[in-house]
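Section 3.1: Structural characterization of target chains.
Under the original work plan, the team committed to producing a structural model for every single-chain target entering the pipeline before any wet-lab resources were allocated. The record below documents one such target. The sequence was received from the expression subgroup and is listed exactly as submitted; it comprises 459 residues.
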Amino acid sequence: MNKIIDKIYAKSPVTLQNMIISIYGYYWKNRRLGSIFKRQLDEFSQRESFTINQWKQYQTLELRKLLIHAFTTVPFYTDKYKNAGFSLKDFKKFELADISKLPYLEKEELRKFSKTTLLSTKKNRGKFYSSSGSTGTPISVYFSKTMHQTWNAAYEVRVRNWAGVNNKMARGMIGGRRIILDATAKPPYYRYNAAEKQTYFSAYHISEETTPNYVEGLVNNRVEYFVGYAMSVFILADFILKLNIKAPKLVAVLTSSEKLTKHMRKTIEKAFGCKVFDAYSGVEACGLISENNKGDLLFSPDTGIMEVVNDQGTQVEFGETGEVVATGLLNFDQPLIRYRIGDRVKLSANQNNTMLKIDAIEGRTEDIIVGADGQKMVRFHALFIGIEDLIVSQVIQEEKKLIVINLVVDTNYNKNSENIISTRLKSQLGNVQIKFNYLKNIPKAANGKFKAVISHLKN
């Protein structure tokens, strides 16, 4: 929503907020599900019957088209690939096996050039979407309407449909959007988007005290399936079981964004009486991993090319864990080629499918932060959206009411941004003390991984 509507929304009663969200939902429904969405649904469905050789041929042709387009219309790649010794002739006969010869696209490069030289000179009309994700690095990614509809068709076929649900069914959602702006707000802790039969639950108010109201929202709006951050859905499910509340039986729960453990899966399935289907993508939309009805996590080869490499940049063997290097095959307006997305996966030793099978998605585990009123949350990327010249961020809870924010910034960073970040954080957690540290580098955990959210609270 734009800034004027945001201000109106913030001062409106719940009924009017529901109306504003529904109007906004109608716009989004048409943007995501209009025009070419239906045709793309059919194409994604048809490709599911591809053999391994057909997938290889498909990816080869799509990669060549992408590289030719990037080399001729995206200034960033024109310069980068010329400096690396590539010519247009090379890309016309490019093979999948050659992809490791291309230089990486670093997250810092995406952050720095996403709104300038990383855009195609022939881009379609679109918008930028921001996120800091699990790496704590703010980024902006460009989506045209065509890209949005294609990506949502992939999600519909490979996430919703594999879980036995669809976009026409009533759904609940716990996401990053701040639908309730006050940390000490009164119920209800959800809003309703009538355009899509979507009940949007706050990810920032889940506590033992508020859980009955969350269940009330599920019942009143006849929610059929749940979508949301894995940890937020788990926290809610855990409170439901501890309070012995009877939640409605759902068709499925679709989780994403954080690592889903066996314990979390078991808790969610028990609370809602259905299977959990995990998925992984990210705002960059350069690859989709999703779970089928057999419990296999599969990478969709028509959404991108996923390399899984070791510290030397060499492809790991099946059964091993490595860093994800992603090349998106759908976004020609802002191509992401050999992008170091910052996450890790373990390849399955048992490759019994024509799509690449993943055993585990790693590198997405965050700690739980506890607010002043006992609410639990893990998502804090909204703190840093729109903060200029911020490179990396990290949120640490030292004490119940003491939050430390570590920042790595460029020389042009405006320290007045502290006021914006502080206001946003207090709106989530309540009255807490906030301390800012400016570092050259943020230390990694003992396992070598970066954590954007850390809690030092006991239990």
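The radius of gyration is 22 Å.
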